[in-house]
What we know:
Elements: H1 3-6, H2 8-17, E1 33-37, E2 40-50, H3 61-77, E3 82-92, H4 97-114, E4 117-125, E5 130-140, E6 155-159, H5 164-173, H6 180-187, H7 193-198, E7 203-208, H8 213-224, E8 227-231, H9 245-250, E9 257-261, H10 266-272, E10 275-282, E11 286-291, E12 294-297
Parallel strand pairs: 3-4, 8-11
Antiparallel strand pairs: 1-2, 2-5, 3-5, 6-9, 6-10, 7-9, 8-10, 11-12
Helix pairs in contact: 3-4, 5-6
The site of adenosine-5'-diphosphate has 9 residues, from helix 2.
Amino acid sequence: xKIKQLGEFGLIDxxxxxxxxxxxxxxxxxxxxxxxxxxxxxVVSVDALVEGVHFFLxxxxxxxxxxALSVNISDIAAMAAVPRWAFLSLSLRDxxxxxxxxxxxxxxxxxDEFGVELLGxxxxxxxxxxxxxxxxxxxxxxESVKRSTAKVGDLVCVSGRIGCSYAGFFALKYNIKxxxxxxxxxxxxxxxxxxxxxxxxxxxxxxDISDGxxxxxxxxxxxxxxxxxxxWDSIPFCDADFITKHEMLCGGExxxxxxxxxxxxxxxxxxxxxxxxxxxxxxxxGVELIRDGKREKVDDCGYKHF
Length: 306
Ligand code: ADP
Ligand code: MG
């Protein structure tokens, strides 16, 4: 059997079944693993950017360095933790050294902005460029917010707008003019640490949007054993007019935060202004949309590697 028949998440499940996590740590399945030590816990994630899959050689290496670290920090945000340390593994073609210098310029800039220290890594030659980052963050023990703990009745909330990154990707691909704002959202995303930390103590579950709004809502649903009802008119869609709203919900790489928040905090949440309330957590499975007063089941969509 080929990997494609299993799918990306089927493959991850197959690997997961081979390991019994006896340490009591939270392992495979969330944005980060959670390793409690004393009064704190360390959260850890690893993500690769692969030439030909995530970027092409004509990308600005400085922006690539920014994005590589930013999308990793986004997984720390998804746990409502504070980013701290990184390891950088470079598998490289024989590139111009200036290309790497610019990549590191971008990486350093984001590291400084978010207080991340580079503590190590690895360097090898390769037939395509692969940039692999391990990121570690810190939290007080028990305070990291998982995907698996959403409760029926919670508000489903999202930071920022949905779909601007996909609009940027589309604009680059089809050379659409006047789309600089969206291209910026795609090439230079901001990890939503501030927004995630602002709802710590209020949020029951969180994820960052890498695969797409619908698919990432479905990850929370599946792992929490719940459903979600989302109001079409409440979704903060991107204002780009050259892609469809369906593409915005499925496109991915928004790196916004989806948070399920106890409804007793509704007034505080609205006052803080970081999140839009788009729906609620219900009994059931998967995401349903309410559109023109009608409930409709949405097919899962979004980025899958296989
Ligand atoms: P994210 O989109 O937040 O980066 P992924 O979809 O990449 O998360 O991964 C989902 C979960 O599966 C994570 O907990 C990740 O650590 C785990 N995972 C992915 N690939 C592997 C693998 N090859 N071996 C073990 N765990 C994996
Ligand atoms: Mg994630």
